[in-house]
Each structure stands twice: as C-alpha cells, then as structure tokens.
Amino acid sequence: MPQNRSSVGRTSSCVGVTNEYSATWFDTYLSPGNAAEVDRELEFIQQHLPVGQFPKILDVPCGIGRHAAPLASAGYEVWGVDRSTAALEVARRSSPPTVRYLPLDMHDIAALDERFDAVICLWTSFGFGDATETRALLSSMGDCVRPGGRILLDVYNADGIEQLPVESVDERGDRTVSTLRSVEAGKFRVEIRYSDSSDIDIMEWSVYTPTELEQMAAAVGLTSVLACVWFDEARPPAPEHPRMQFLFERPE
To answer: How many domains would you assign to the chain?
Structure first.
C-alpha cells in the first residue's frame, strides 16, 4: 500500500536540475492508455476551447500525444512540441497523420513563427525554469496565439504543494516508485527512484500562488478567464489542492 511521511519539507535547491525524464519515467507514468483523468481534461478543453472557435492548437510539451492525438481526431489542427525525441516517436505512432510533431524545447516556441488559436500546457509542465524563464515562456505563449486566443495552464499551486507528503511509496504494476518532495525559495523539487531501475528522475518547478500567476499573466498582456481545480470550473483554486488550472486570453 502507498505510504507517506509528514508534509513537504524544505531543503536547499539542487543545482543543475534539467528536468529530463528517463525512459523509466515515461514507461511508468506516460504509457499509452485512455486514463480517466485524460478524458476529463479533453472534455474540459473541448468545452472551453471549442473546435469551431479555436481550431488550431499548440500542445506544449506534448509528450506521447495523449492530448494531441484525440484532439486531432476530434477535428482540431494540432501541433505538438517536445524536446524528447523518444516521446515524439511514441506520439507519432499513436496519432493521426495530421498532427504535426516537432522536436523543440517549450522555452523556444517563439522559433515556430506560427499563430495559433490556443496553447495548452498540461500535466504541470509549466514552471521548468527560473522566474525570468517562466515569465518569458508565458509571454511567448501569448505571442503564439491570435487576438482572442487562449492559453490553458495546468500548474502546481504554491499554496497547496506543502500539503503533499515529504515521502511516498507507490506500487505501479510490478514497479515500486519512491518519491521525495521538498520546497525551497519558490522552487518545488521532486526526486523519483524505481525498484527495478537505476534511473533517478529529479525535477524542479518554479511555483506560484493563484494571485502571483494572474499577476504574471497580466504583466505579459493576458487576461484571466477562468481558474479552477481538477478541471472543474465550479471549484476554484484552494490550498487543499496542489494543482490548479488557469485559462488566459489575449485581448482582441
């Protein structure tokens, strides 16, 4: 059974973290499948980014295409970018040929020189970088969408992550996964080890409160349309929930 100890603690930040995901991580967390949580996310996207109004979507980073593929099947024109060529190979095998996948770090999306109706950034992929890099990424997302275009972010809530356990042990199939968490100076750090692999995944995020994220969005010219948790518009962000979703819009 999963175990945990205390709540997220505080430690010094790990220098040189690059948020690279190992093959074991992808096998553990992103193996293809129609998970209920992905279905809920897709329903939310189609409700708030209807294909008739937002037909062209940039999925960044797209991973193995768990959102890009079904959105393309639903009639969207989808572009997906990810710096993991291994993830993109999986995405291409499971997606309609209309999806355009490109090997690109999400912080470099300005190089696309394309305009989209919407940008989606899901599964807490926003915040890989310091405060300056994170703000620049949000600004680039705003530049990527047309006037009236929208940006959907699924992010960690700085008010909520300290509710998470310092340590947890979970069984995923035949694999035991041990996770250590800590927070220091606005950075959330996660270290993951596996019972059947020598891989160790270490990730860090710059994290924000709901107010801080809305202020950052306003500073780069975006307006807040919706803020919620669990992809449920009736449930606003709160400290009890470590993740939150924001829908921003570029003014006409």
So the answer is: 2
